[in-house]
Amino acid sequence: MLFGRRKPGYTTTVDGSTDPEQAVLELQKAELAAKKKPKAEVFDIDAASETARRLKETGSTFDGSAAKTGEDVIAAVERETAELAAKQAAAAVGQCELMYTYDKLFSEYNHTVAQLLMTGSDFENEERHINFKNTMDKLLEFKALPIINENDTVATEEIKVGDNDTLSAMVAVNVSADLLILLSDIDGLFTADPHTDPNAKLISVVSEINDDILALGGDEGSAFGTGGMRTKLHAAQICTEKNCDMIIANGEKPDILYDIVDGKAVGTRFIKR
User: What CATH code is carried by the domain that includes residue 170?
Assistant: First the structure.
C-alpha cells in the first residue's frame, strides 16, 4: 500500500490497488489544496511522476506512513527502488560464482551443466512454458544437467516464485517428472520439530495433505516454519496434485539419493493423488 500521512489538518490515503504514479499525484494534489503553497515551493510533479513510474516498473512497494511531505514520499520510493536494484545486482554477480562452482565440481565427473533462470511468468505464459519444456527435453537428451534457479536479477513481487521448494515443484510438474526429491537438514516430516522435541516421530508416508499435515509446517516465524517445512509442504501439494510423488530426505547423508533410487524407505514420501 502507498499512503502518506500529512501534517496536522490533512491526511491523504491511497488504496494499494491504485496505480503508483496516480497515487503520488493524488498526494501532491492534497498538499496543494491544503497548504496553498506558491508553485515554486511545491516539489516537482514531473520528478514525482517519474519516480513513481520507476517504482511501478520494478514492482517495488513501500510504506509511506512516516511521510509528512511530498519530498518524503519521493525519498521513500527512491530508497526502496535502490535497495531492490542493489539486491538484483548482487544476485547477478552471485549467479556467476554459483555456476562456476557447479561447473568445476561436475566437470570432475565428466558431466556438463546448464543454467536456466526462471520467473513465475515463465510457467504462466503458455508460449514461454512450452519453450522451457522444449529446452529441458533437449538438455536431458544431450545428457546435460540443468541447474535451475529463480531469476532474481529481474524478478519482482508480481512475477517471483519466492522459494526454491516451490520452484522445484513447478519445474517437476512442468516436465512431467515422476518424483521430486527435496533435501533438507532433517530426515523428513515429523510429528513435531525434531530439533526441539526428542519425542518427535518421523512420518514415512503421507497419502493425503490435509489440515493436520499442513499444521506440522509450523506457524510463520516459528523455528520450525523458518526451517523451510512450510514451503516443502506447499511443494508437495503442487506435485501430488499433478501426478508426481515427492520425497523429503536428509541431504547431509552422502548416499541418500542412491537409497531412494534403489527403492529403500527413506525420509517422507508424499503419494500422488
Answer: 3.40.1160.10
Taking only the tens place, the pLDDT of each residue in 205-247 is 999 999 999 999 875 434 443 348 889 999 999 999 999 999 9
pLDDT in tens, 156-196: 554 567 788 999 999 999 899 999 999 988 899 999 988 88
User: Would you say residue 12 lies in a domain?
Assistant: yes
Say yes or no: 101 and 149 in one domain.
yes
Question: How many domains, in total, are found in the chain?
Answer: 2
Whether 89 is covered by a domain: the verdict is: no
Q: How far apart are CA 120 and CA 97, in angstroms?
A: 24
User: CB-based contacts of 227: which residues, under 8 Å, 6+ apart?
Assistant: 184, 185, 186, 193, 195, 218
- The predicted-structure confidence for 108-151, as pLDDT tens digits, reads as follows 999 999 999 888 878 888 888 888 999 999 999 999 999 998 88
43 within a domain of the structure (yes/no): yes
Q: Are residues 124 and 51 in the same domain?
A: no
What is the residue range of 66's domain? 3-83
